[in-house]
Amino acid sequence: MGLYLNSKKASLLYKDETESTYFVDKTAMLDELIPLIEPNLRDKNQKYICITRPRRFGKSVMASMIAAYFGKGRDCRPIFDSLAVSSRSWYTTHLNRHNVIYITLNSLPSGCKSYREYIDRISKRILRDLIQAYPKASLAESDAPWDALNEILESDTEDVRFIFVLDEWDFIFHRDFVSDKDKAEYIDFLSNLLKDQPYIEFVYMTGILPIAKYSSGSELNMFLEYDMATKKKFSGYFGFLESEIDTLFDIYCKETANPEITRDSLRIWYDGYCTVTGRRLYNPRSIVCALSDNQLSNYWTSSGPYDEIFYYIRNNIDDIRDDLALMIAGERIPIVLLGYAATDSELKSKNQIYSAMVVYGLLTYENGAVFIPNKELMDKYNELLLTNDSLGYVHRLARESEKMLTATLSGDTKTMAEILAFTHNTETPILSYHTETELSAVVNLVYLSARDRYRVEREDKAGKGFVDFIFYPEHSKADGIILELKVNSTPQEAIRQIKEKNYGLRFKGKLGEKNRYTGRILAVGISYNKKTKEHFCKVEVLKRADK
Q1: Which of 70, 133, 319, 544 has the most CB atoms lying inside 10 A of its own CB?
Q2: Residue 212: which of 189, 237, 236, 235 has the closest Cα?
Q3: How many Å apart are CA 427 and CA 441, to the nearest integer?
Q4: What is the dotted CATH code of the domain comprising 9-226?
């Protein structure tokens, strides 16, 4: 038992996880791994697995679960006996029966300032564990880890093999002190340790980034890689599924004295990620934090402000800004999803940029297009638009949004039209208004600040049809807003449609919901005349929501 070899760490971490109020049992994933370990089923070409997911999607929890189950560090029956895996025929055959080297690669030595300090610490710890566990082998502290492991294999009467569980393999690529030369050496270190070594029983590796593909393309080509956007296998084990959220929400309602969160609000805030199989995924960390705190907030993105998004788009703002306007309005942008390697530093084309943002979870990908998955991330995009003047007209329109909302609530249609006319101070293609989609994108920008006080939804089913925008106020006495857009028509026609199709019924709530809003309902019609390039606005009070 050591720091890496058959350590207690994985079992203690996973035990803590299983004892939390909002634990989700994902041990069924072992069904996928056991066939890769069984001697009679083992395929040399399938014993190297790398699973990549955005941060906070449960990678570390799954790594600790796998290491705790297989590793000899301690008896983990008390942990696993009550979980799904305990019903499997092979459960006890593999429980704590394997040598596991479990390394969380996102740990630095104290005061670490170089790659050499980082990798030497890992090598020394592996050597120390092996010397302690195999005193009869002729091991020296100066040995390379792979030489020591081969020495153990040769000196022991049995075939001693090891399972490696490596969490956050790409951590070192994000450190400022790591050079390109260091990165190449790190890949060589992993290759020497893992590739074509007879002591390898199985390797399970996780990270955010796909495995780097250097010019030779051979260092780590033994791995089968599984990402969220293009690979079906393992797709249900990272992130929370709808059924799992239902279960957690039931626990929340029973355990929380005064629950403030609705099931629908969890979907709005944290849903929206997609697997290639079409399953919807929620961000696990955000769900657990929200339910534990009894409060909806930005949990996943709280550690990184809007500049994390700006980092990816900064090299091609001219091509990206129109897409941002459309995505923030709820539209999807078609792309060709590209492989994104850890070594790619210059992201210039839109396909490169959006593919990288999918890898990091800043966008989600489905059916050939990318989009902003949920409110948690949408708030960060809003922050970007409001604070970064390099985004040009998109930023300027967003800055006008507080004035636009004030004018709307007071019925000042002249100011509303002036703000919309301001959009034609640019020659941006999005402002050609060939369709209502483009008008919707601009209208969304000029109401951006409303999202601090409203939940803004597009094309929501309301009354007898679909409405362009509904603004649901966060406070029951605030005004609700129904906004309809028309191109080459009139705002009066837009309001007539709102009335005839009875869109105001949406504020009554869905069947079984309590009526949340008691303030006024405002009908807002906005039209654009392509010939004269004029905007026209009309605001009319429909009625109070409680009438």
Answers
A1: 70
A2: 189
A3: 15
A4: 3.40.50
